[in-house]
Amino acid sequence: xxxxTKLASTSFKLIFLYSVFLYSGFxxxxxxxxxxxxxxxxxxxxxxFSISLEHLINENSPVLGDDDxxxxxxxxxxxxxxxxxRYSKNIEPSIIADYVNTGxxxxxYKHFAIFGQDSINAAKVSQCVNEQGKFGEFKKILYDNQxxxxxxxxxxxxxxxxxxxxxxxNLESLNSCVESTRYDSMxxxxxxxxxxxxxxxxxxxxxxKSDGSNPEVIGGAYPYPLFRSIIEKKLGxx
Length: 238
Known about the structure:
- The protein has 238 residues and is α+β, with helices and mostly antiparallel strands.
- It has helices at residues 31-44, 53-56, 82-90, 92-100, 117-130, 135-144, 156-164, 171-178, 184-196, 224-235, and strands at 2-4, 18-19, 22-23, 26-27, 63-64, 71-77, 105-111, 201-202, 204-209, 216-218.
- The chain has a single domain, classed as Glutaredoxin.
- It is 43% helix and 15% strand.
- The strands form three sheets. It has a five-stranded mixed sheet with strand order 5-7-6-9-10. Strands 2-1-8 form a three-stranded antiparallel sheet.
- β3 and β4 (26-27) form a beta hairpin.
- α5 (117-130) packs parallel to α7 and α5 (117-130) packs across α8 (171-178).
- The radius of gyration is 17 Å and the shape is globular.
């Protein structure tokens, strides 16, 4: 997991210094403590910041899977986070094959853009690409080309060049969208949601039944068997 260590802003612009810990090939924080804290935060926020599909899925969130899937996974990630890339490349494909393609799980991407302006740029361009139904292709390109955080690889110019690699992308519409402010509020809201849930870094996941009950947190790019066990538990009624 990519870890935040500092938060500074009163206008939704966040600057994080981050550190990482290596365990079994995954960068994570102390999961036993933080997952407990996160789940406690969920309980405390049920009335003030309710976990529901209506609350967490707005009309612009990138979604993969059937609307009627019995389980939803909310993926709070940053395109500059190396562990987010690891999840996307090594774990998510199994979730898609076993559960999304079979109608059991819906994946919802949320922008936990914590690394700085390049992260915000990537979130914004990805939303503009999503307008053209190409979010999945763009996400793959970004993670395949990911370099060090805030080294310029995710500059606005580079992001447009990455998007131009997608067949049938309309660059005129894309540029118009990128120059607008239509997704600024959404990206801020996603970030505030992650903060309200007390997430300690990226990636972070909420696995929840479609009625919004019994949400569970996965704090990091854990191996697929953990995701599978929690999904199966939800499908079994827990």
